[in-house]
Design a protein that fits this description.
This protein is α/β, with parallel strands linked by helices. It has one domain: Glutaredoxin (3-Layer(aba) Sandwich). The chain has five helices and six strands. It has a six-stranded mixed sheet, with helices on one face. α3 links the parallel β3 and β4. 20% of the residues are buried.
Length: 157
């Protein structure tokens, strides 16, 4: 155990332990600017803490971003709760390993003309909405994934 007294070894051990911890690190973004995701496919998902199907969609959203992020997928969850604390509590129970944006006044939701919750929009590398999904059913996840993959194939590499 003598080697553990070396500060470099301690630092290395801390780094290894930190990296092996489960990541539940949603990244809150302060400004929604689709132009920063040029040549990326964006899966824009509107959700709220009171939405049951939203709770079921998060594990799939985490999985799909992890699976396709190297090919150019970016998942952004847009929270519509008027109280941010409700969203943060939801995220403690149902972690998001993707970007999250708060839209408490519903301006972004209004722009996308939501008709149900959750509502998802698959946006191509040029910023155009190409697919729309209302609601979430695990049984439809292959369809959702195909809408993403088709646009990833169009990206310029």
């Amino acid at each position: 155990m003598k080697s553990m007294t070396n500060p470099l070894n301690k630092l290395l051990l801390i780094a290894i332990l930190f990296m092996s911890m489960p990541s539940h690190a949603e990244q809150w973004i302060n400004k929604f600017d689709l132009s920063q995701y040029k040549n990326k496919v964006v899966y824009l998902d509107f959700w709220a803490s009171w939405c049951g199907p939203c709770r079921k969609s998060f594990p799939w959203l985490n999985e799909i971003e992890e699976k396709y992020k190297k090919q150019g997928l970016v998942v952004i969850g847009v929270n519509l709760d008027t109280e941010i604390d409700q969203a943060k509590q939801f995220l403690k129970d149902v972690p998001a390993n993707f970007r999250v944006f708060s839209d408490p006044d519903g301006k972004l939701a209004e722009k996308y003309k939501l008709v149900g919750m959750p509502s998802s929009f698959v946006i191509d590398g040029k910023g155009k909405v190409r697919h729309r999904h209302v609601g979430f059913k695990k049984s439809n996840s292959d369809e959702y994934e195909k809408s993403i993959v088709s646009l990833l194939k169009e990206l310029k590499r």
